[in-house]
Design goal:
Layout lengths: L2 H13 L4 H7 L12 E6 L3 H17 L4 E6 L13 E4 L8 E2 L12 H9 L14 H11 L6 E5 L13 H14 L1 E5 L12 E4 L6 H10 L2 E4 L3 H9 L3 E6 L21 E5 L18 H4 L3 H12 L2
Parallel strand pairs: 1-2, 1-4, 2-3, 5-6, 5-8, 6-7, 8-9, 9-10
C-alpha cells in the first residue's frame, strides 16, 4: 500500500478519537499549534449546529491565550456575534484563503464528541462541550408575551433535520401521533420547513414552519419548556440556552460522545434524553438512502418519545 495512503489512514483513524494523541498527531510541535497564535482567522462554512459546536473550542482557546485576536467567519453570524471570546464576526464569503477551516468531516465516523475534535484542530483540550449562542432578548420577551395565551408546557418540535441525509427522519405517522399527544399536554410549537398537516383540531398548536428567521427560532427555543426533534441546529441552540430536549437519534450517529448533551455544564440536572437504536449497522453516517428502510428510526415508537417528554417536563 502506498505510504501516503497509509499515513492518511492512520491520521484519520487516530484523529477520529479526540485526545492527547490526536492533538500530538495534528500538532507535533505544540508551540506551533493554532491556539498559540497572536491572531487567528477561523471559518465554518455550513450548518447552524456545526457553527455552535465550534464555540467550545474557541472559548477554550481564548481562555488559554486571552491575547489571541480571533476573527470568525460564518453564515450564522447573528448567533455568535457578541460572544466575549470572539473579537470579530464576518460572513463566510469574506474569509481569507488561509483561514483555519473548523471541521470534523474527515474524521467520520467520529469516536468522540465533535466539539472535542474541533478543539483538537486548534490544539486545545475541550472539556466543557456545552455550546454558546447569542439570543435576542427582545425577541425572547416578545415570544413570552405571545405564548401567554397558550397553555403550558410549551413544546417546540422539529420534524426534519436537513437535506443532507434522510437517515435522521422519524416516520411522519409517528410524528403525527406524538405531536397530537403533546398538544393535549400543553402547546406544540412547530418549527422548520415543509408546512403540511396541522393539529388545530386536536389541541393547542402553533404552526411556525417557514415563518421564522434563525434569530426568531433561537428566541422561541429559549422560551420553550422542551424541544423534541432530531440532531440538528435547534438541538444545539437548546443545549446553549438550557432548554431540555428529547432527541430522536435512530442510528445515524451515536449520542454518547458525538453530538449529545445529557447534562448542562456545572449542574447535575438531566437536560437531554437521547433515543438511540443500537443496531449492527449503527452508527452509519450514511448520506444516501438506507438499505434497511431506516429500521433504527421506526423502532423508536411515539410512546417512547412521550414518556421521555413527560420525564423531562416533571424534573
Amino acid at each position: 500500500m502506498n505510504a501516503g495512503v497509509v499515513k492518511t489512514f492512520v491520521k484519520k483513524t487516530v484523529c477520529s478519537k479526540p485526545g492527547v494523541i490526536s492533538r500530538c498527531v495534528r500538532h507535533p510541535n505544540p508551540f506551533l499549534a493554532p491556539y498559540q497564535s497572536k491572531k487567528l482567522d477561523l471559518a465554518r462554512q455550513k450548518g447552524l449546529g456545526d457553527v455552535l459546536m465550534c464555540t467550545p473550542a474557541i472559548r477554550e482557546l481564548k481562555r488559554l491565550n486571552p491575547n489571541c485576536y480571533i476573527r470568525f467567519f460564518t453564515d450564522f453570524g447573528s448567533l455568535v456575534s457578541g460572544l466575549p471570546y470572539i473579537d470579530e464576526v464576518h460572513a463566510i464569503q469574506d474569509s481569507p484563503a488561509d483561514a483555519h477551516q473548523l471541521s470534523y468531516e474527515a474524521c467520520t465516523p467520529p469516536r468522540g464528541h465533535l466539539a472535542k475534535i474541533i478543539g483538537d484542530q486548534l490544539g486545545v483540550n475541550v472539556t466543557n462541550i456545552q455550546p454558546d449562542c447569542i439570543v435576542n432578548q427582545g425577541l425572547v420577551e416578545s415570544y413570552r408575551s405571545l405564548l401567554q395565551a397558550f397553555p403550558k408546557p410549551h413544546v417546540v418540535i422539529l420534524r426534519r433535520a436537513s437535506r443532507w441525509t434522510p437517515n435522521k427522519d422519524w416516520p411522519d405517522q409517528y410524528w403525527n401521533i406524538a405531536a397530537e399527544e403533546v398538544s393535549r399536554l400543553g402547546t406544540v410549537i412547530e418549527i422548520g420547513s415543509a408546512p403540511g398537516e396541522t393539529l388545530n383540531e386536536y389541541g393547542s398548536y402553533l404552526d411556525l414552519r417557514e415563518k421564522t428567521t434563525v434569530e426568531q427560532m433561537a428566541a422561541i427555543i429559549a422560551t420553550a419548556d422542551l424541544y423534541i426533534g432530531p440532531v440538528s441546529g435547534p438541538l444545539h441552540i437548546a443545549a446553549a440556552v438550557g432548554t431540555p430536549a428529547v432527541v430522536i437519534y435512530g442510528g445515524y450517529e451515536h449520542p454518547i460522545g458525538q453530538q449529545g448533551y445529557d447534562r448542562l455544564a456545572g449542574g447535575g440536572r438531566c437536560t437531554q434524553i437521547n433515543l438511540y437504536t443500537p443496531l449492527a449497522c449503527a452508527p452509519c453516517w450514511r448520506a444516501d438512502e438506507c438499505p434497511y428502510n431506516r429500521k433504527c428510526l421506526s423502532m423508536i415508537e411515539p410512546a417512547q418519545v412521550l414518556e421521555a417528554a413527560r420525564k423531562l417536563l416533571t424534573l
